[in-house]
Amino acid sequence: MVSPSTAAPASTPPYARVKQFLKDGLAAGRWAPGALMPSESELVAQFGVSRMTVNRALRELQADGLVQRTQGVGTFAAPLHRLAAPLAIRDLHEELVERGQQHTTEVQLCREERAPAALAARLGLKAGARVFHVLLLHRCNGVPLQCEDRYVVPAWAPDFLDTDFQTTTPTHLLLQRVPQWEGQYSIEAAAPTEQEARLLQVAPGDPCLVVVRRTESRGRPITLARLVHPGQRYTIEGRFKP
After folding, report:
1. Given this model, what pLDDT does residue 241 score?
2. Are residues 114 and 60 part of one domain?
3. What's the structural domain count of the chain?
4. Do 144 and 206 belong together in one domain?
């Protein structure tokens, strides 16, 4: 067994140490393309961390296109010819904290509603079915960064509305509750609604980056979110390997 790298500083999050160890091994050719990599259980024992921590590291490596995962089989080094540039589902709070920035949330709305036909269809529900609806304003170091308008299928998280969204995010909660996420998303430059402009403290006609994301598990919809960011304050970045 290869020992965990000791080069990472003590302040490095546990999942990042696991991720960097595997990235270093892939770069060094320790696992050839298509080769079976260490299992979650092996990494848990090797690093002395939780399975959730290891799962996050592997999930991010998969999003980066460096590994392929097959349920019940294992994790494999990705083929060298594979080109991947997916948009990973990440928790905004974790992203900001990793950068040394302060994240705060203001809850504008948190309630149960009846889904109109168009919304119900996107969430795999019947028209008029119950849905959970939250509207949150996320700030970075006190500056409005994201307006999150989200609908959630109650079956996945029955206590969703009881959550304190000033101390956790819907993404963090749902990633813990629901395994094997998949999603579709669209990104466009668009003007905010009147309410979004007011919350984000921008002019009604200012360009914003709007991400509409629908996620599911095993073909069953989980949540539909509209994430609006002031264009001059937010950039989507990604990486890919040919």
Report:
1. 45
2. no
3. 2
4. yes
Pair 165, 58 in one domain: no
Residue 66, helix vs strand vs coil: coil
For tokens 């119950």, the residue is: 130
Instruction: Tell whether 198 and 100 lie within a shared domain.
Output: yes
Measured in whole angstroms, how far is the alpha carbon of residue 241 from the centre of its chain? 21
Low-confidence ranges of the chain (pLDDT < 70): 1-11, 79-90, 179-180, 234-242
**pLDDT score, position 204:** 87
My answer on whether 108 and 225 are in the same domain is yes
Sign of CA dihedral 56, 58, 59, 63: positive
8 A C-beta contact, residue 105 and residue 147: no
pTM (predicted TM-score): 0.62
CATH number, residue 30: 1.10.10.10
Which of 107, 122, 145, 118 lies closest to 213, judged by CA? 122
Q: Tell me how crowded residue 227 is: count the other CB atoms within 10 A of its CB.
A: 22
Average pLDDT, the chain: 84
